[in-house]
Amino acid sequence: MANTTEAAAAPFGRDGGVLTVGGVPVDRLAARVGTTPFFAYDRSLVTTRVERVRAALPDGVELSYAVKANPMPALLHHLSGLVDGLDVASGGELRQALDTTVPPERISFAGPGKSAAELTRAVAAGVTVELESTTELARVREAGERLGLTPRVALRVNPDFAVRGSGMRLGGGPQQFGIDAERVPAVLAEVGAAGLDFQGFHVFAGSQNLRAESLCEAQRATVDLVLQLAEAAPGPVRSVNLGGGFGIPYTARDTALDLDEVGENLAKLLAVSLRPALPEARVVIELGRYLVGEAGVYLTRVVDRKVSRGTTFLVVDGGLHHQLAASGNFGQAIRRNYPLSLATAPGGPEETVTVVGCLCTPLDLLGDRVSLPGAAIGDLIAIFQAGAYGLTASPTAFLGHPAPPEVLV
């Protein structure tokens, strides 16, 4: 855990032993925010990560941000000036995306269960609707007829393969996501008959993958599938969203993704397969967690220290209602600690402690038997890798505690 924590904390830096975010010591930042707990995101780390991804990806590959990873408005506006497009998964995210500088034609709307009202808003805005069923196709066509507009659409494809090593599987086998690959040609014929503005394909088979070879294998299979399906397209393919799924390390057993290997594979696919066969297509990589996850930290204050039958507990004013993933209740089969550290200057020798939140449930466990410098009541604890799937992926109403502020520094 020590090495993982050091790697997660290093980009933020310290000033006199106090963790900094955006160059500001967190004790001073807490005074500025006015309360704890809170989320803090370092804008320079987000910018640096986007630049790193751009450098690794071949020329001609566009970068889209998956808003679901973190829709905090200031962060979203910052990213809108760095990426080529945005992917949204609800009417609420659509509204936020349309408030940025990203043009509507560079916004895509994915996700199952889009309501007729959401689809009408998407058609009116001119964004690309990622069709996930024939029901959505009918709803989009009807919305276009009512509005006197030609809807922009792409097909989200559920491939006939899965991605090895993914934290969550979003393709292969039966899925609520996308249209089964074998049914796509028939749906493409319906799209053509309806006179919709066909853009292309979106294939996203898995998320949170740290294995470069697995991602490369999935991208090769995705390109083969898209080229096959393109033969049935009702017009030229103008967009190919290869998904993303790039993972970040959360625990001691995780190894950071080899981004350069992924970029080299994409360069080959672009030169050998995609450009010759689909010369008009924009090729898109869609990332969320990978762009913002490591740029965020959740800061919570120690409100009590107690010893129970030989175990020292640090009780903090935050918890799983704000940071569900760090508690192990957001997709972990076996609970493992997120990297966390004492954010204020250490006041005592290293000790083994268990960090728990303020909720009246044993599920509210943030750090199980972790080694920390001696912490006292009033000290700040930092939980790293908190820039993605934090606040908006957590049960904030649980037990009636107030929602934490978010700041971009």
From TrEMBL:
Q: Which Gene Ontology MF annotations are present?
A: diaminopimelate decarboxylase activity
PROSITE patterns recorded: ODR_DC_2_2
Task: Output the NCBIfam families linked to this UniProt entry.
Answer: dCO2ase_PEP1
Residue limits of the Orn/DAP/Arg decarboxylase 2 N-terminal domain?
Answer: 46-292
N6-(pyridoxal phosphate)lysine (modified residue): where? Answer: 68
| BP-aspect Gene Ontology terms | lysine biosynthetic process via diaminopimelate
Cited SUPFAM superfamilies: Alanine racemase C-terminal domain-like, PLP-binding barrel
Which coenzyme or cofactor does it need?
A: pyridoxal 5'-phosphate
Q: What is this protein called?
A: Diaminopimelate decarboxylase
Entry keyword annotation includes Zinc: no
Species whose genome carries this gene? Amycolatopsis rifamycinica
